[in-house]
Design brief:
Radius of gyration of chain A: 22 Å
Distance between the termini of chain B: 67 Å
Number of domains of chain A: 1
Number of strands of chain A: 17
CATH topology of chain A: FAD/NAD(P)-binding domain
CATH class of chain A: Alpha Beta
Largest interface: A-B, 74 and 61 residues
Number of strands of chain B: 0
Order of helices and strands of chain B: HHHHHHH
Strand content of chain B: under 5%
CATH superfamily of chain A: FAD/NAD(P)-binding domain
Number of helices of chain A: 12
CATH architecture of chain A: 3-Layer(bba) Sandwich
Largest sheet of chain A: 8 strands, mixed
Oligomer: heterodimer
């Protein structure tokens, strides 16, 4: 084992790890980040090949249990209604994301006060607003000011990405129905922005990695600047324990290097940024005399309150081509008409409807947005009537925290180095099911208004566990949460968690801007309080 | 995989994706060979063949279809990955992509480096929603509608 000593060691080089590394390194701290994966080589991404859709089903599948790349860890999802999506690389899951970049609404931080469910966050929208702005500048956002569905804010860095014919049809339908809609805020360059990053050429499969850097990911935004400021990044580092002293203070992180040799990286402060699955796993693995159930787990809340964004999918088929294979696949316009609680609807909280484009030929045939194209005599006719003629609305619901939805350590599954895999136990509650049903009716109505000749609904997209939230939740009460409003563990003063694990509630919006804003704020709060942080001797 | 198994696989693929005036049957583009030699999909083909009766390829067409329907219904863990493998390899074959292009205008090429031309965003399209007042909720923390 080596004995390097840094100010800070971070586990995970994804959205939040990159942001916090940049912030702390720029302030002069000695920062090292441990990342299990490697740098992505953009000259080798599959979208340069005609068989790019095979990669989507194999080496670039978002589910690590399907992908099974050497750097991945498996996930025991045998008791999970929604399957995990994540990526292990510098950039983390921003390597394969769709880059939808909405901010949470002010009400999302106050659900207990406003609606009597979940818990209030210990921080507010206003606390995060300056960090949202700074993060927008770092990631680069295309969008349009003036959205009546959200508080006023500074202009985005770039105009919206092209909407496409499907979105234009749906925008007209929303207008006729009197519903809110607005162009999505997206972390995709509609024109060149950032160091060496080009503009989007609408190729479609953002999830395979963007060779021009137009689709933002933290390996091309934060990391070059973080490294330029002195941060050190160690790839191929598979963390297996946050080490502590006899007082329970963090002393560093133990990990296996890419050769399988155990290493230790010591630091005054440990920051976990390995997503709601990986961070909970590492905390549960970090058992000691002081923390027999895992570090900072006195309250048995580490791993609990797992939240996704349970999603229904409604697809409209038109009698003409809308060419949805062109343009960023996940983003065009967003409807938040049903976002806030309305008691008349029979459920609390609400949902967004996000218009996604469509698939290439393989994606159309194997299904996803639509059911699989049936095999047999009618196969080609169904394919011809579907391909390039569809658009889909997600019904993305707010998932309320429940103790039974959780991450634990698997009894039966281990990764390539013998480390227990995380196990997800997850089911939907009745409120969520009713919300999805309502959303399906709403989306169906919108497609009918838009002139779709057929509308198909999928009541739960099983392969949609891309937002892993809540497993080390933030709160003011040390008996009812894992970290405080500054992301510091209540029971370990020099341990921070800065990824989606800390979300008190999930909102019904894509979380990455909020994850990064929380991380940037945590870094600032750490810097401000640094002299007072109790570290190991 | 034995030669008999390969024969069964080729027959199976043609039953699942029959050719028509535009699209070739898998046997015409030698898809069975591509599948059994594929790093990931080969195992799925093996599993599917193992789920079929040994005399599958010599049964009447209707009986073959009934067998496949049975596997689809009763052995989803085998059938579903196999369909992904079949459709994935079929729809990236150059001959099939050319047929897709003829049918839809979709360019039979890689998405990069050319990408696709799309009409730029026109702000006039938001005239209706932009005319509405604030629609977010007062959270009592400073940002109010």
């Amino acid at each position: 084992m080596t004995d390097a000593i840094d100010d800070v060691v971070i586990v995970g080089a994804g959205a939040s790890g990159a942001a916090v590394a940049w912030r702390l390194a720029r302030a002069g701290l000695k920062v090292t980040c441990l990342e299990q994966g490697d740098w992505v080589r953009y000259d080798e991404v599959p979208s340069f090949r005609t068989d790019w859709e095979v990669a989507r089903q194999t080496s670039h599948h978002p589910n690590p249990n399907v992908r099974r790349n050497p750097v991945d860890y498996p996930v025991d999802d045998s008791e999970a209604a929604i399957k995990p999506f994540l990526y292990n690389a510098v950039g983390g899951s921003t390597i394969l994301w769709g880059a939808h970049f909405p901010r949470f609404r002010p009400s999302d931080f106050r659900v207990k006060t406003l609606d009597g469910v979940g818990d209030d966050w210990p921080i507010s929208y206003e606390d995060l607003a300056p960090y949202y702005e700074e993060n927008d500048r770092m990631m680069g956002v295309s969008g349009l000011a003036g959205d009546p569905g959200n508080p006023p804010r500074l202009a985005r860095q770039m105009p919206p990405v092209p909407l496409g014919r499907g979105a234009e049809k749906m925008a007209g339908a929303f207008d006729r129905l009197g519903w809110h809609w607005w162009p999505c805020d997206v972390a995709i360059n509609s024109q060149p922005y950032g160091e060496g990053r080009g503009g989007c050429n609408n190729c479609g499969p953002c999830d395979l990695g963007c060779p021009s850097g137009a689709r933002s990911s933290s390996d091309v935004t934060y990391w070059p600047q973080a490294i330029g400021a002195g941060a050190k990044l160690i790839t191929g580092a598979r963390a297996f324990e946050v080490e502590t002293d006899s007082e329970g203070r963090a002393t560093g992180v133990a990990y296996y290097d890419r050769d399988g040799a155990a290493q230790r990286h010591r630091a005054h402060v440990v920051i976990l940024a390995a997503n709601g699955l990986g961070t909970a796993r590492l905390m549960l693995l970090s058992q000691s005399k002081r923390f027999p159930n895992g570090i900072a787990n006195d309250t048995d809340l580490v791993g609990r309150r797992l939240m996704h964004h349970p999603t229904g999918m409604v697809t409209g088929t038109f009698d003409e081509a809308v060419d949805g294979y062109a343009g960023p696949f996940a983003v065009s316009i967003l409807c938040q008409h049903f976002y806030e609680t309305d008691a008349a609807r029979g459920f609390v909280r609400g949902y967004q409807m996000q218009l996604v484009r469509s698939n290439g030929p393989v994606g159309t045939a194997v299904g996803g947005y639509l059911p699989r194209v049936p095999w047999g005599e009618g196969h080609h006719e169904t394919f011809r009537n579907t391909f390039a003629r569809t658009a889909s609305l997600t019904v993305t619901t707010e998932d309320l925290p429940r103790l039974d939805n959780r991450v634990t350590l698997s009894d039966s599954l281990r990764d390539a180095w013998g480390i227990p895999a995380p196990k997800m136990t997850y089911s939907l509650d009745q409120n969520t099911k009713e919300m999805i049903e309502h959303g399906i009716k709403s989306a169906t109505r919108a497609f009918n208004e838009a002139g779709a000749v057929a509308v198909t609904a999928e009541r739960l997209v099983v392969n949609a566990g891309f937002h892993l939230l809540g497993t080390a939740c933030m709160g003011s009460d040390a008996d009812a949460s894992v970290v405080d409003g500054d992301c510091r563990a209540h029971s370990v003063p020099n341990l921070l968690v800065v990824d989606g694990s800390v979300f008190t509630t999930s909102a019904a919006l894509n979380p990455t801007p909020t994850i990064q804003a929380v991380a940037l704020r945590a870094a600032d709060r750490l810097l401000a309080a640094r002299r007072g942080v109790e570290v190991a001797a | 995989m034995t030669s008999i198994d390969r024969t069964s696989l080729a027959v199976l693929l043609d039953r699942m994706i029959p050719g028509d005036a535009d699209f070739p049957p898998p046997s015409r583009i030698e898809l069975a060979d591509a599948m059994v030699t594929h790093e990931r999909f080969g195992a799925m083909a093996e599993a599917m063949i193992a789920a079929l009766p040994a005399d599958f390829s010599t049964r009447p067409k209707e009986a073959q279809i009934a067998v496949v329907e049975s596997v689809e219904r009763e052995k989803a863990a085998v059938f579903d990955p196999f369909v992904v493998a079949l459709y994935s390899l079929y729809y990236v074959h150059p001959t099939v992509l050319a047929a897709v292009e003829r049918a839809s205008g979709y360019a039979a090429r890689a998405p990069q480096p050319e990408g696709y031309a799309l009409k730029r965003f026109d702000p006039a399209i938001v005239a209706v929603p932009a005319s509405r007042g604030p629609q977010y909720r007062d959270a009592g923390t400073g940002s109010s509608s």
